[in-house]
Amino acid sequence: MIDLLIEMFSFSFLVRTVIVGTLVSLCAALLGVSLVLKRYSMIGDGLSHVGFGTLAVATALNLAPLTVSIPIVVLAAFLLLRISENSKIKGDAAIALISTSSLAIGTVIISMTTGMNTDVCNYMFGSILAVSRDDMWLSIALAVVVLALFVLFYNKIFAITFDETFTRATGVKSRTYNMLIAFLTAITIVLGMRMMGALLISSLIIFPALTSMRLCKRFKSVTICAAVISVICFFVGVTVSFMYPTPTGASVVLVNLSAFLIFWAISLVMPFIKRGVRA
Fold first, then answer.
1. What is the CA radius of gyration of the chain?
2. How far apart are alpha carbons 146 and 27 in whole angstroms?
3. Which of 24, 177, 257, 267 has its CA 20 to 30 A from that of 229?
4. What pLDDT is attached to residue 236?
């Protein structure tokens, strides 16, 4: 095992992938708990499709992908919230409207410029070779910002997650903190999308939260457990991808699925174990 790790980290692209992936997994898991509890977990899927469209535009114009994607995806997140709150187009419909439109735009632009080549597959399903040195440093800086803001406003995020109406009645500007969650989610999605792919990045938001909720019941314990699960599953997924010829994004998702099934099985067995102990 030690020899395997030494061999893995002898490749600079894998070192960059592990660093960025660990930070993105951590950010996604922390935000994912609130998004899942607010029944807004598919925002990651919608924003990743927007990100795919912006990556296509950046590629066509020979611009830096992250520099172009971040502001546009953040604006899309704010637009998504505004549409959901102030019109007849609610949550899931708004996500479907924006995500499918962005995916279509990205596909058309790529087909008219670079053509439907292997780059499209990398954008859709991710590639560990996609993280450059500049991308790594930018990702580290933005991930630190996301983590710092989450910790700083943890109490407010907790409040609007469980009782937004009461929180608003106490004078807290819930819309501001909803926009903060959307802003942090948008950044996290863009950072992880080239590595995980537009179709798989939302799994980093959904799986760890659902997995930890099988056994943990308090918000704080669920959040910490989700963060640990997400980081471990990512590292295991990258290792599996290195050992066998499997796509990194898909490997990470399958490891997350395995973790969910294990926690689900334990949650089914736990009541019987507790009864046996009491008896």
1. 19
2. 7
3. 177
4. 93
